[in-house]
Each structure stands twice: as structure tokens, then as C-alpha cells.
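Usage example:
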Amino acid sequence: MIISLKDNLTWLQVRRYWELLHVLVSRNLKVRYRGSFLGVYWSLLNPLIMTGLYTAIFGATFASYYGNSIMNYVLAAFTGLVVINFFSACTSQALSSVVGNGSLLNKIRLPVSVFPLSMIAANVFQFAVGTFPLLAVMTFLNSKSLANVLALIFPFLALVLVCTGIGFLVSALYVFFRDLPYFYELVVFVIWLSSPIFYPAAIVPKQVKPFLNLNPLSPIIESLRQITLSGSPPDLALIWGALLSGVIILTLGWTCFHLWRHQFMDLL
Amino acid sequence: MEVIRLDNVSLWRRTQEEFSYDLKKTLLSVFEGKYRQPAKKLVLDKINLVVKKGEKIGIIGANGSGKSTLLKIISGILQPTTGSVRVRGQIAPLIELGAGFDAEISVIDNILLYGVLLGFSRAEMQQRIQSILEFAELQDYTFVPVKGLSSGMVARLGFAIATDIQPDILILDEVLSVGDESFKNKCKQRIDNFWDANATVLVVSHDLSFVQQSCVRGIWLDHGQLRFMGNANETVDCYLKSLNKL
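Running the assembly step on the lines above writes:
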């Protein structure tokens, strides 16, 4: 009897959490796309323009690293940009989500973690409708194999895990340190430059390379490029590497968030 | 049947002076060896309280005496540092209406959003939309973004959503009537319905005559301590006497 009551309670909590997530995500998306007729596809504009810019500037110089094909450079730059854009959008929106809803948290009892999570979920939705189809078509044209298209899920899943972990971490830190956005901007820039997005990883000096491997996005970009561009079947080792980095970061972020959240209310 | 029980509830919170906190300053103070643990203050001191079903309780006391904090503890927004809180039944908080609104999205979307935030399911809220719009007299504004409403209309909407249900426990923090005169009457009627409908009500108010008239029991908080608890009239008298002494 007691057990069934407990089960019932947790089920109710799960349902409430789900409902909250649902309304918050639809709120986020509605606010973002109200009155813009391109809607979700605005989010594609940024990586497309950036890819064009990089190709115009670096394309000819770096083409030799990409089998003397500018097209390969374009695709490599685009996949990298998609990942880094998703990362920076997710985490910087998650950063302010807890503090931004502070007055609400002071008035209604709500699970705090739903706010950073709703930001990530809104971006996942946007990615799934906007960028993902384009990547899938690219992959299919390159590899002529459905297995590669399906395997795209894994690096993307790893990316979502990394973003959720970092999102939890920064949203919690922001409660304590209100000047965090300035520092975080710098961090994003470092991650952005240290991931081989618009330059080939081969030009990085040997002494510096080990540091670049610390970048949590590197294994994800590598795995995504292998699946999308190489034309060979998905490399499982790369996929596992990406997922592992995702799980580690999510665990880290969630642990910090969980340990600190009892102190949030005094500062909101 | 008791619906709320507080046993020896104490709450320590970080003090207001600590509200300037940033990474730069914290790092500097660590390097200079001046870092100290944030100071904490006792906001509620060993509160014991049992509320039975259907009781109407007025909470009075000076500003900063912990009245709203006590309500937050009961609503589960704050966790007590020591002691235990037990609550049976659904709590409807009626604190500063409109806090959950998003000005960018339409009235109808806000009804769903606010309702779910307050703890109802989306399906439930969808059925209530009509009655809420009707009560708030905003049928013509269904698809207008909330930023297009006047502040009085927003308050009306907040009140209509928060009171469209019959909660087991109603918590009122200084908001009893909003909007123009005709709407105030509607509000009062609805609040009176709650009063009659055997709901448990907790009110924080500085309107002492209101507490005397509408509440059965009174609680007087002073600097986080429960100074007096008893009949509403006695509590108000006690409170006034202490004020006159000063």
C-alpha cells in the first residue's frame, strides 16, 4: 500500500515535470519566432553565412588539407559551425534561465532544473527541424548509406549531453556570480577557437595538440565529420568517445547543480 | 483533521548585505586571504504550528518579521534549516498575481502556462480557458499578447486563473482585490466563496480589522518568533498593545 502510494507520487511528479517542460518549451519557441515568417529556419542562416565567409577567406589556402576540394572544406566548416552554434546557444540561454525565473521560483514551488532543461529542449527542437534534415541529406549524398544517416543521432546525442551538463553548471554558477556572462563569453570563444572548425586539425603544432583534446566538443565534431563526410561506415570508436565525453560532462554538471541548488533560494 | 503541521521550524538565510557577489570580487578576496563564509541570519525561530482543516488564520506583524517567509515555508518554496513541515492537500498560492506571465505570448497561451506552473495539467487548463476569460472579462483579448493589456487587465487575468479552482489550502499575501470597482466586487465574492467553502485559508495582512473580521485564529510574528497565537481579536489586541508601548 505504502509502496503503491510512493509509486503514484513519483509518477505524478514525473507527469508534472513533463507538463512544465512542455509549456516552457512551447513558450520559448513562441517568444523566439513570433512574427518571423522564416521561423525556425532563421537558425540556419548564421552557420550558412559563416560557412560562406570562411570559405571565401580560408577555402583556397586550406583546400589542400581536404583532398584539394573546396567543397570538402565547405562541408567540414559547416558541420563544425553547426555544433559550436548549438553549443553556444544552448549554454548561454541556460545560463540565465534560473536567475531569470528567480521571482517565479520565489512565488510558486517548482523544480529548479526544469528551467535550464527547457532551454536545451527548445534548441533541440529547433535543431531537429532546422539543421538536422540538411545534415541528413548531406550525409546521404556523401555516403549513399542509410546507416550513416541513422548514426548521426549519436554524435548529436553526445552534443546534447555535453550542452545539458554545461548548461546545469553555468546556470547554477550564475546564481552565485552575477558577472559570469562576461567570463563565459570568453570561455565560449576559447572553445570555439580551439575546436578545429574552420582550420584543419593538422596545422596545429604537436606541443599544443594535447590541450585541444581537452575540448569536450572535439570528439563530437570529429565523429560527426567522420559520419557525414568520409563516406565510410560510422566509426564506433569515435562515437563511443563522443558519448563518453557527453556522459562525463553531464554527470559533472548535474552533480554540481544538485549539490548547490539548496542555496539558490537565498540569492534569487 | 490537521492539514498543516510545523514542528520546531527554524530557517537561516544569507543576509541581504551579501547580495553583491561576483566572480571577480570573490576571486580577489580569496587571493588577498580576506574571503569569509557568507553571514547568515535567523529568519524563523522554532515555529510550532498546527492548522486544522477549514481554519482561517490571519498572520500579522511588522515588516520583515517573517510573515511571507512563513508562507513560503508552508508552500514548499523554502526548505526549513531544521524542523519539519507536513502539508496535506493542494496549495494555491495567491501571491503577487501575474508573476508567471510572459508578456510576449498571447492571453490564451499565458492561461495554459500559468495554470501548469500553478500545478494543473494542460488538459485541465484547456477546459477552464473559457470560464477564466469570462471571469476576467477578457474574451475580446484571447489572442492578444499580454504586453498589449493594461496593468489592471493583467491583474484581473492573474486573479481569475489563480482562483478558478477550489484549492484545499489558499494562501493570500496582501492581495485581496484588484482592478476597477466592479471587478473588486467580483473578487470579493470569490474570496468569500472560498471562505464559505470550508477551505483552509492563511492570510498575511496589515489590515488588522480585516483579520479581526474574517479570521478565526491569529498569529503574531515578531523577529521570526511566534509571539502570540490565539483568537484573532486577542492577537490583534496584543499586537496593538506592544505597538503602543513603544
